[in-house]
Amino acid sequence: MNTDARADGAGATGQGAVAAAALGALRAGLMAAVPILLALLLAGLLLMAFGKDPLAYYGYVVRRGLLSPSGLEQTLTRMAPLLLIAAGLIVAFRAGIWNLGIDGQFMLGALAAAASGPALSGVIPGWAVLTVAAGLGALAAMAWSVLPALLRAFQGVNEIITTLMMSFLGLSLANALVKLVFRDPATTVPQTRTLPVDERLPRLFETTVSSGLVIGLVAVVAVHLMMTRTAFGLRLRIVGAGPRAAVHAGLDLPWLTVAVFALSAALAGLAGAVDVLGVYGNIRADWNPGFGLVVIPVVFLARLNGFAAIGFVFLFSMLSIGGESAARRLGVPTVFTLVLVAIVLIVLAVAEWLDQRARARRA
Amino acid sequence: MTTTAPILALKGITKRFPGVLANDRIDLALRPGEVHVLLGENGAGKSTIVAMLSGLIQPDSGRIEIEGRPVTIRSPRHALSLGIGTVFQHSMLVPSLTVAENLLLGAPWWRRPARREMAARLGEIAAGLGMAVRPEMRAGDLSLGEQQQAEILRALVRGGRVLILDESTSMLTPDGIAELGALMRRMAGQGLAILFITHKLGEAVSFGDRISVLKLGRKVGEIPPERIRGEETVGEVLEMMFGARTAGAADTAPPAPPRPGRRLVVEGLSLPARDGAPALEGISFDVAPGEILGIAGIDGNGQRELAEALAGQRRAGGRVLVDGRDLSAQGVGGRRRAGLRYLTDDRLGEGTVGAFPVSLNLVLKEVGAPPFWRAGLERRAVIDAHARDRVRAFDVRTPGVATPVGRLSGGNIQKVILARELVPGARVVVFSKPTYGLDLANARATHQRIRDLAAQGIAVVLISTDLEELLALSHRIAVMSGGRIAGIVANDAEARARIGRLMVGVAA
C-alpha cells in the first residue's frame, strides 16, 4: 500500500509539471533573494549600533567596488585567486572531504611561484617562466597535502584536523623560507625577489585586470563540468554522498581520496601562484591574505555549484574591495565584509530550516 | 502474580522511515514491578521504540498512554518529566565531572547547582539499590558497569517510574551483566517498570518477567510471567523469532531441482576479525547451476562478512571460483563482469545513493563503462534510456528516472537494486536478507524473482535470518555460527529441527 501512494505523482500532466517547475524556480529565487535582503537589513542595524550610516556604507561599497572603473578592475582581479580556491573547495566538499588547509597550500603555492619566477626570468622565455612557476606552485601545494591525504585514505584519520594543522605549519614554513632562503638581498624588508611587471601574467585588454581572472573562470567551469559530466566526477560524488555505496560499487576509495586531496590542493596552490604572478610579483614574509577560510562560506552559499560560485565570488570580491575602501573612509573595519557574509549564511540557514519544517508539516 | 495496570502503554504504534516500515502496529505495556524484555534482532524495530519513548521521534500513528491517558512525548526532557528515563547503549557522561555534577547538567541554567542535595539524594538511591557507584566519583574513573549505574541514577533521580535500558549489556563483562541483572531485579522490587532491550536470548530468559518478541517491525509474540520457565521458554522464543510463519513466506512452491555441476565454488574463505565484526574461518561450499543455497544463522555470525568477501568488497583468504574461473584476485568490478552479483540488505545506505536519481543508481556499478560513458564523458541520453527500460522491466514505481532514489519506498528501492544487479550475464547471485523490511506483495515478488533466477540456471546464495523464507526457497541450507559454517543440511522434513540445533551449537 505504501509502495503505491508514493508513485501517485507520476500521473501529473505535462502542463502541471511545467507550471510546477516555474513555481519551483520562483520559489528558489525568493529563497535566495529574501534572506540576502534581510541579512543586509540586519547588518545595517549592526552598523547603526556602531553609529555608522548603513546607507552611506552600502552606497560607498557599491560605488567603490562596482561602479568606479578602477574599483571594478580591482574587484575582477581579486576574483582570480578566490575562483581557483572555490574550484579546489568544490572538488573536495563534493567528495565529502574537508580540506581546510587551503591557506597553507595557497601560501606554499605562492612561495614556489615567487621563488621560481624571478629566478627563471631571463633564462627561459616569458610564457615558460609563467607556466613553470604556476606548475611549481600547484606541485608545492599538492606535496603539502600528501600527508593528510595518506592519513585519511589509509588510516581514516580525520582530515579536518590534519589539514588545519598542516596549514599552520605551511604558513610558518613559507614565512621562514622567505626570510632564510629566498630573501631578496637588495631590500631591507624580508621579501622574495620581484618578477618585473612586464613579465607577469598579461593584463586583459586595456584594463588593469589580470588574466588570472580567465584562469580562475576556466578552472571553476572545468571543475563544475568535471563533477557533473564525467565518470571521474561521478565517482567523487558517490564517495561524498555515500561512502559505503562507493565501496559496494567497487570504487577504489583510498586512491580517489588521494586524488581529491591532490586536485584540491593543486588548485589552491595555483591560486597562490596566480596571485603572485599576476598581481604582486613577490611575497613578503608577513603576507597572508587568508583567502582559504573566507571562500568556504562563499562556496556553501553557492551550494557547491560552479556557476553560482562565480556569482557569489564576484559579490564577495566586490564587498571586500569596496569594504577596504569604506574602512579607510568611514572607519568601518574591513572584517565587516566577513560579518556581512556570516549574517547572510546564518539567515539562509534559518530560512532553509523554516522551509524544511514547513514542508514536513504539510507532508 | 496478579496483573497490575500498566504505567506506560503503546497502542498500535506505527513508524515509517524512507524505505523501511520500522514499527508496524506495535502494542506494548509496561507494568510497575516488572522487567519487560523486548527481544529482537538488529533491525527488528527495537531502537525505534526506544527513540519514540524517549521523545527523540514521534510515531506516525497509534498512541502512547501513561496511566491510561494519551500523551505526546515531545523531547527527551519531556520524557524525563513524564517519569521515563532512558539509558542508552553508549555512556553520555562528561568524564571530567563527578557523577553528581554530571546529573546536575540538565537543570535550568539560571539556577545555582544544588551539589550537596544532589549528592545526598544520589547516595540514598544508590545505597537503596546496592549500587557501587558514589556521587563524588569522577565519571572518567568509572568502569563501564559503574558508568551504566550512573546513567541509571540519572534516569531515576528525577523521579523516574519507567526505566528503559537499551542494549545495556553489550559493553559489559559477564560479571557486569549478572550484576546488572540483579540490579534490575532490585529496581523492579521497588516498583519501577523496566523495559530491557536486548538481542540476546539468554539474558531475556534469565532477567525478564515478561518477554515481547519483535521481528521485522512487528510484534510476533509475548510471553507473560506465568509462562517463563528456562528451557521451554527458549524454545518458544526461538519459534517466534525464526519459526513463526511470516508474511513473506506464504508461497511455498517446491523449488525445481538443481542441475548437475558446480557453478560457484568457495574454498577456505577466511577473514580476520575487524571493528567488532566476527572473523570468517575456513568457509567452503559449492552451489550448482539452478540451486538455491540458503545461509541461516542468528544475525552477526559472519553472514555480512561472507557476502562482502564473496562480492570482493573485502580481501579475504581462500578461493572463489565461478564456472571454474578463479576470481580470488578480482575486485568488485571484475567479479561483477564475471557474473557474480551481490544484493545488499542495506538498500539505502550501501546499495544506492539516496540523493542520486534512479537513473544513476541503475548504473552505479558501471561508472565509466561503455555505453553509458564514452572517453569518461557521461552520455545522459543513453543512461536515461537504459533507466526507463529497466524501470519498465522491473515495474519500479517512480515518478520518473530523475527522481532521487531515496524518495521511493523500500520495495521500489529493492526493485531498483534488482534491476541493476540482474542485467544479463548473471551467473551467481548473492542475496542478503532480500525481503527485510518489505511488505507482503513485494516480499512475494522478490521470492518469485529468486525462484525464476534459479530456474534459469543461475546459482543463488540466499542469506537470511528468516528461517521460513529459507525453508520455502532453498535446496540446501548452511548454518553459520561464529564465522564458520556449522553444517549444511538438505531442505527436507527434518531441516527445521537440525538447523535449530546447529544454530545453538549442537551437532546436527
Mean pLDDT score of chain A, rounded? 87
Strand content of chain B: 15-25%
Oligomer: heterodimer
First-to-last CA distance of chain B: 39 Å
The N- and C-terminal alpha carbons of chain A lie at a distance of 17 Å
Pairing-aware structural class of the strands and helices of chain B? Answer: alpha/beta
Question: Uncertain runs of chain A with pLDDT below 50, 5 residues or more?
Answer: 1-14
The percent of residues in helical segments of chain A reads: over 70%
Please estimate the helix content of chain B.
25-40%
Number of helices of chain B: 17
Would you count the extended β strands of chain A for me? 0
Which structural class should the secondary elements of chain A be placed in? mainly alpha
Find the biggest chain interface.
Answer: A-B, 26 and 42 residues
Main β-sheet, spatial strand arrangement of chain B = 6-7-8-3-9-10
Q: How many H/I helical runs of chain A? A: 14
Order of helices and strands of chain A: HHHHHHHHHHHHHH
Radius of gyration of chain A: 23 Å
Biggest β-sheet description of chain B: 6 strands, mixed
Describe the protein in words.
With 363 residues, chain A is mainly α. Chain A is 76% helix and 0% strand. Chain A has a domain at 79-291. Chain A has helices at 2-5, 14-49, 54-67, 69-94, 102-120, 126-155, 159-180, 212-229, 231-241, 243-248, 253-280, 291-301, 306-330, 336-362. The relative contact order of chain A is 0.18. Chain B is α/β, with parallel strands linked by helices and 508 residues long. Helix content of chain B is 33%, strand content 24%. Chain B has 17 helices and 22 strands. Chains A and B meet through helix 1, helix 9 and helix 10 of A and helix 10, helix 11, strand 18 and helix 14 of B.
Task: Provide a concise account of the structure shown.
The complex is a heterodimer of chains A (363) and B (508). With 363 residues, chain A is mainly α.
Q: Could you give the topology of this structure?
A:
The complex is a heterodimer of chains A (363) and B (508).
Chain A lengths: L1 H4 L8 H36 L4 H14 L1 H26 L7 H19 L5 H30 L3 H22 L31 H18 L1 H11 L1 H6 L4 H28 L10 H11 L4 H25 L5 H27 L1
Helix pairs in contact in A: 2-14, 3-4, 3-13, 4-8, 4-11, 4-12, 4-13, 5-6, 5-7, 5-11, 6-7, 6-11, 8-9, 8-11, 8-13, 12-13, 12-14, 13-14
Chain B lengths: L7 E10 L2 E11 L4 E5 L6 H8 L7 E6 L2 E3 L4 H6 L2 E4 L11 H6 L10 H14 L15 H14 L4 E5 L7 H16 L3 E6 L2 H7 L2 E6 L2 E6 L6 H14 L20 E8 L8 E8 L4 E5 L6 H9 L5 E6 L2 E2 L5 H6 L2 E4 L3 H5 L6 H4 L11 E2 L2 E2 L1 H14 L16 H12 L6 E5 L7 H16 L3 E5 L3 H7 L2 E6 L2 E7 L4 H9 L5
Parallel strand pairs in B: 3-8, 3-9, 6-7, 7-8, 13-20, 13-21, 16-19, 19-20
Antiparallel strand pairs in B: 1-2, 1-4, 4-5, 9-10, 11-12, 11-14, 14-15, 17-18, 21-22
Helix pairs in contact in B: 7-8
